[in-house]
Amino acid sequence: MKIKSILGCRKFQRLSLVVKIVLKSLAASQLLYVFSPLQTNHEVIKEINKLFFNFLWNNKGDKIKHAVMINDYPNRGLKMIDVASFNKSLKASWIKKYLDSENSSKWNTIFNLELGKYGGNAFFKGNLNKKDIDKLTTWDPFVKEIIETWSDIFFEGKIVSKDHLPSLPLWQNSLIRIHNTPVLYTDWLLKGIKQVKHLMDDSHNFMSLESFHNKYELHIKPLSLYGIISAVKLLQRQIPKTRLKHERI
Questions:
Q1: Phi, psi at residue 150, to the nearest 5°?
Q2: What is the rounded distance in angstroms from the CA atom of residue 174 to the CA atom of residue 147?
Q3: Most CB atoms within 10 A, among 62, 77, 176, 214?
């Protein structure tokens, strides 16, 4: 393994800690082509991370905690690479490539096959937690890992303010549930109905069934509209109430 060869070179052992951390980028460059296109082997991640830190301390045990070493300079760290985070960033880069409208790579077909029934590109506009992702039926383990990485990075577990509500995604959102399951109405999505605000009128009130029909020219069953509105209202009640300045604390 090239990484072992680089980190095992004896002439590097007497170098300063800072220089060693710079040199680790030479070894890290070898990981790019291995980690990016393959499903993660977490045992390998642990082994490589151990190699990096053994290299820093000449196999004599850590003198500074990993969590401190990987911090940026302003946070009293030395920007040491964290292999797990590095791997996660590589996996997340596939999402950016997939969402690029100018990307015509053949691998897009695999993502489309896997995610087509879940909204395609719109899937990554949602807000799913890992528990709900585990319920998705995907046959490709690499794609499954990509969407789990997306969830790790972007999932918002709660609504933080009243102003936050209108911008929330309606579809594939673990916070908006019907029968305890996130929902996706493909025909609504095709009409541009993507966020909570698309269920509201100009006065920020939820639309009536008639108003909804007129605006979107989409004839639906009343329970479909009232069901999703009820799910949003349930979430709305969870918004933290802020105290007014004149209120006693």
A1: -55, -45
A2: 14
A3: 176
Cα separations (Å) of 143 from 23, 116, 123, 248?
A: 32, 12, 13, 52
Tokens matching residue 208: 């009536």
Q: Which two tokens stand for residue 148?
A: 């789990």
Whether the CB-CB separation of 202 and 179 falls below 8 Å is answered with no
Query: For residue 99, which amino acid is it?
Result: L
Using a cut of 0.70, tell me whether the model's pTM lies above it. yes
Q: Which residue has the tokens 């393959």?
A: 38
Q: Using a CB cutoff of 8 Å and minimum separation of 24, what contacts does 190-193 make? A: 191/216, 191/217, 191/218, 192/216, 193/218
Q: What is the pLDDT, as a whole number, of residue 246?
A: 43
Helix 42-56 vs helix 17-35: crossing angle, to nearest 10: 160
CA-to-CA distance for 20 and 22, rounded, in angstroms? 5
Query: What pLDDT digit, counting tens, does each position of 161-196 carry?
Result: 888 999 999 999 999 999 999 999 999 999 999 999
